[in-house]
Structure formats: C-alpha cells, structure tokens
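Changelog note: in this version the structure field was regenerated for every chain. One regenerated record is shown below for reference.
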Amino acid sequence: MMAVWGVPERLEDHATPALAAALDMQVKVAERNAERARLGHPPLRIGIGIHSGTVAAGLLGGAEQHEYTVIGDAVNVASRVEGLTKRLGAGILVSAAAWEMAGGRFSGARIAEERVKGRDEPVVVYRLDGRAQPEPREIVRQVQAIA
C-alpha cells in the first residue's frame, strides 16, 4: 500500500501526518493481532517506510480505467526504506529527509546508513518509536488556547 501527503495540494510539512499515520497503523495492527491471537491465528506483520521528496503526480491509465498515483525517485526511495524494515528489525523506518521535516515532533533514533538500489549515496534511516512528549510550557499554551 502506498499513501501520500502533499499532493495534489501542496502541504509544506507532509512528513508530520505521514509519521502520525504510521504510528496509528501500528496501533490498529496491534488491536487486530490481539483479536487474531484470541482466535488462534498468527499475527499480521507490517513494515512501513517513509521518505520525503519531489514526485510526479497525476492520473495514469486510459479513459475507462485509471488511477491517481505518484512516481519518481522519492517513491522508489520510500519503497527501499520500507524494504529495510525487516532486515533492520524496525516496524517503521523514516529517511533523514522526512525525519528532519517532522522537526522533533516524534521520538526515535538514527539506526543506519544504508545503500539502496538506484542511489549512489547511502540513505540515513531513523526508527520511529512514537510521538515526542510536549514540553510542560507547550501543554500550558495548548490549554490556554483551548480556554
């Protein structure tokens, strides 16, 4: 499955909703796996790769059968990052480009610098662990904004 943010309408910080969605997906898979375990079924496993970059977006296909999609180097890198999840033992991997865009809103760690097919330079990847805890002052600002 591929999901994209920032097309067709530009979204400057498209990495933040992408990382949040990845964490939400993990929660849903865990919930589903609890039910599967109760029924004696094996767990589902997913790997999520996130990258940020420029893509070409539009309708692909003919008049009767077409779909909106994106293509380009950024799509290929995201796919390669996803492919690293199993080998590196991480459920969600995020490229440095997407990690830096998210600007500290998430917790995780830099875990590798990997060569991927189609790239001369290695791709730095971070393991996504969760959402960063807001500073106490930020919580006060959020409460005051609501009041």
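Spot check on this record: The chain has one domain: 15-146. The longest helix spans residues 15-38.
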